[in-house]
Amino acid sequence: MSAANRRFSIGAAAAFLLAAIVPAGAQTGAAKGDPIYLGVSGPLTGPNAQYGAQWKQGFDLALDEINGASGIKGRPLAYIFEDTQSDPRQSVAVAQKFVADPRIVAELGDFSSPASMAASPIYQKAKLVQFGFTNSHPDFTKGGDYMWSNSVSQSDEQPLSAAYAIKRLGLKRIAVLHLNTDWGRTSKDIFVKAAKDMGAEIVDIEGYMADEKDFRSTLVRVRDAKPDGLMLISYYSDAALIARQVKQSGLNLPMVAASSVYSPKFVELGGDAVEGVYTASRYFPEDPRPQVRNFVTKFKAKYDKEPDAFNAYAYDTMILLAQVMRESGIDRKAIHDGLAKVKDVPSVIFGKATFDPNTRRVSGAMNVELVVKDGHFTVWEGGTATR
User: Fold this and answer.
1) Same-domain status, 226 and 336
2) pLDDT over 60 (residue 3)
3) Can you give the C-alpha Rg of the chain in angstroms?
4) Domain range holding 27?
5) β-pairing verdict for 147-148 and 361-362
6) Which of 81, 87, 116 is nearest to 12 (CA)?
7) How far is the C-alpha of 309 from the C-alpha of 152, rounded, in Å?
8) The pLDDT of residue 1 is above 90
9) 377 bridge partner residues
10) CA atoms of 83 and 151, how far apart (whole Å)
11) Hey, which end of the chain has fewer CB within 10 Å, N or C?
């Protein structure tokens, strides 16, 4: 068995709401009649706008396929995208709008778990499925039986990150830098506990704000703690900035990062400074599985670039919900009930997607350990951590 195969084992303007109605199926003409609408709550402007753009690419590729194959019982599937800037205050306003709109049969989003969880009581009360496909906070699906997700929980991911750093890379004294958000703090707590349970020492923990740009004083404290490696619980833009400043500071330490950095943009923004950074992903475009090869080929043909994990999650989500609606119906209750029944839906992230009825999350995500090498993410081939 190859090394690669072994690793596939396991303040915002609240009044500003930009609505983008996408008439899916308009290009193909195969699906006709009144569209079936999904509501999307997420960032199209603000600091996380790039993620909303990535979502739309994945959604639209899936809708080309769905509506090119007669849509949902002959009707086109479409979405209405409301811009929240991933701000909890705005996600609440959007939730109120969506639950009052009888056209909306299910909601997707928001991008961050705090923005989604702020709106969850509204969706639960109205009995409208809130599908948080990038919501890895362990508590997201605990908000009620109308909260579902195909995102891997941080309670599952961070122990894998700790095992990669400690058991695979040999790190013993780790400094942790994390986003000072609910997601970042929760992920940090899970990582720290898992790392200590595996025998590592956490020598420094540093939280930072999402808009922070200058990490020099933080890195002085990190240096003084004498770690043998850094763990970044970050998004790709801030992780790239931290890596640049680590290099500028002269700290020659191995860096491990949460899977949230996995994007070609991380390498683009970080340049030479992210060379040698270790991470993992639920999705890797070189995975030989047919679902992945088919997805990558079609994505490149449509957008002339390689898809990342956020594109893949958005694509998977549309394919999954289309299958649920085909099998169970298109009203709000039918979709809720159908999510518990659907089985083995072809999935880029999972191979086959089936929900655990207790957690309302999909079980069995793949995991691949990666390193940035020669300006690209590649499968890590083993050995102790270097920098």
Assistant:
1) no
2) no
3) 21
4) 3-152+288-356
5) unpaired
6) 87
7) 12
8) no
9) 372
10) 21
11) N
